[in-house]
Amino acid sequence: MKQVWDSITRPTLVVDEGRVRRNIARIAAKARASGVRFRPHFKTHQSAAIGAWFREEGVTAITASSLSMAAYFAADGWQDITVAFPVNWREIETINRLAAQVRLGLLVDSVETAQFLVERVTSPADVWLDVDTGYHRTGVDWEDDEAAAAIAGVLHGSRLTLRGVLTHAGHSYKEHMAQAVRALYDETVVRLSYVRDRLAAAGYDGLELSLGDTPCCSLVEDFSAVDEIRPGNFPYYDVMQAEIGSCGVDDIAAVVACPVVSLYPGRGQVVIYGGGVHLSKEFITDRHGRKNFGWLALPTDSGWEVLPDRSYVTSLSQEHGVLQVDAADFDRLRVGDLVLVLPVHSCMSADLLKGGVLVPSGEGFAMMPGVISG
Amino acid sequence: MKQVWDSITRPTLVVDEGRVRRNIARIAAKARASGVRFRPHFKTHQSAAIGAWFREEGVTAITASSLSMAAYFAADGWQDITVAFPVNWREIETINRLAAQVRLGLLVDSVETAQFLVERVTSPADVWLDVDTGYHRTGVDWEDDEAAAAIAGVLHGSRLTLRGVLTHAGHSYKEHMAQAVRALYDETVVRLSYVRDRLAAAGYDGLELSLGDTPCCSLVEDFSAVDEIRPGNFPYYDVMQAEIGSCGVDDIAAVVACPVVSLYPGRGQVVIYGGGVHLSKEFITDRHGRKNFGWLALPTDSGWEVLPDRSYVTSLSQEHGVLQVDAADFDRLRVGDLVLVLPVHSCMSADLLKGGVLVPSGEGFAMMPGVISG
């Protein structure tokens, strides 16, 4: 790794290939054992290069969070893509281009949007009924049988195929116990199955179940009650997932390497080149009650060494990161060194740093090609 | 403006040229009246096109927050650039390229970095002694006469010229009263002058004073006690600055236009295409005690109409924004409409959306060319 560290001059996302492959393999194996489709969400890495590692695990269907992301992966040869975001009417031309090119899945949670699509879509496409099973972000309320049946009714007989019912149980991110996450998974399956069963009773049968946030997919073993899982964050994980219990610190596969630019021994602080535009302003309130914008690690010859959490990122401005550093760690740092920040939310940091990702692989390393910029 | 709004399909930063020009002119006039150099910080807009509007106000010296931003503006013809960030040793090659090309100003707050520059810089450059007047991010403590003199001593007789003492009084962002901001400005001037006077007593005379955060530069009238001001956020302003009192709501010149993708009348919420990757995760705790990720406005034929703050952005995920919308406003919204978000921190949103800025100007509008990507 020494040549990786030596090559870095500015805040740079560094991805540990071995860890990413291990994180992918773990969920892929559980999906295979459960006999369900693994449709990973590619919003975290947004990279064709990392997509290739999923292909090696047999993955052929993916999830994207925007049409531009879907178009990027379609251009890379992915043929079955769900855009897990409510249809944006203003992008109907992009939807039609993509629907002509790949098996496109769209999310619908209103009669208006179902009608809009029926009138405006020019090629066959799949529709997933977006269901709110308790997160309260998007989706038809799981108990609202009428709304679900009305949407199915509008789609019926059109170019659009209602393929299944889908949810994102994002409230799993608020849990901090494996048992609570597993209970939430079970509740989500019950609610999603209820919607499917009510639709079947109304004459719309054969519908699939799709779910899959990273906490549930990391902590649940058996997915056989559903048809596909769509976790996204797990290839990299991050501080937030480690706090939930979805992963261990050693599973975190992406760090932001930041040059040390000044040391303030009097107040035990270190300033790095690495701020909100690199790490995002996302923070956790940690077990010490502090606003924490990231854990810290130091580069080693084979990867990195995570520091005890007495040292952490205490604040961020646009380009500056301020670290509070324990005396024992402070003496190890010099101006010009690299400090590695384990991001609070790797989806945000990876999105911010999509221009400059390094992927250590074996002895050498490469700049990651083709990361999307949209 | 109708053609601007109609052209937007995805989250897009929209800049009101008239407001930006007015915000620039206001501070430029105060600088002229005070007889000080106006060296605006270009980190917020990061745009050659907007830089041109500063040139029309007679500005010839600028501030950047990274070497890549400095290189971008140097390529656009700017000849006097201060990089208001502690020197990053790992970018010494870029520093040397720039120092050969323009009058480059560098920030130093340690003897180690002064020594590093003396040994490694290959062209003449200015150095500003970075002073901590109370913000406690970077800088030599203003009372630490010894450290200041030691740095001046290292630079003496080298290729580097100690040009002055500089501070960023970022703690002004924590104030919410004009009087408090003005008192903080006065305190900052006293502390910065103290450093200059002590250095003069040690034989380093003729040093300039440089300061300039947006709250102070907006609320103070007379800058004659200093030599230059460097505010950055004021061309756009934002919710945070309006909360401080630096500007009125009508001075906010940049909004993020976001398509409405779903309406939830049952809970008075609206979901827009526009999330943390567009707006940043920055929030304020507003006067109602709520986490507030942005105020809302609706497009009009001549610009936008700001909604009462009963309606606001209540949460953000990667691509989703969830709005809490008052009943009276809710009925005005339809799926497919645009909602405009007044960003909490425009520096962050502008950085995230640098690919797609629209600049309404007179009857027509143009995509902003040459926005930097690094």
Give a summary of the structure in a few sentences.
The structure is a homodimer of 374-residue chains. With 374 residues, chain A is α/β, with parallel strands linked by helices. Chain A is 33% helix and 27% strand.
Describe what this molecule looks like in 3D:
- The structure is a homodimer of 374-residue chains.
- The first copy, chain A, folds into two domains: 2-13 and 253-367, Lyase, Ornithine Decarboxylase, Chain A, domain 1; 17-236, Alpha-Beta Barrel (TIM Barrel).
- Chain A is 33% helix and 27% strand.
- Chain A has 13 helices and 21 strands.
- Chain A has helices spanning 2-7, 17-34, 48-56, 67-75, 92-101, 111-120, 145-155, 178-201, 214-219, 239-244, 276-279, 327-330, 346-352, and strands at residues 12-15, 37-38, 61-64, 80-86, 103-108, 125-132, 140-141, 160-166, 208-211, 228-229, 254-264, 269-273, 284-285, 291-292, 294-299, 304-306, 312-316, 320-324, 338-343, 357-361, 364-367.
- In chain A, the strands form three sheets. In chain A, strands 1, 11, 12, 15, 16, 17, 18, 19, 20 and 21 form a ten-stranded mixed β-sheet that branches. In chain A, strands 2, 3, 4, 5, 6, 7, 8, 9 and 10 form a nine-stranded parallel β-sheet that branches. Chain A has a two-stranded antiparallel ribbon with strand order 13-14.
- In chain A, helix 5 links the parallel strand 4 and strand 5.
- The model of chain A has no long low-confidence stretch (mean pLDDT 93).
- Chains A and B meet through helix 6, strand 11, strand 12 and helix 13 of A and helix 6, strand 11, strand 12 and helix 13 of B.
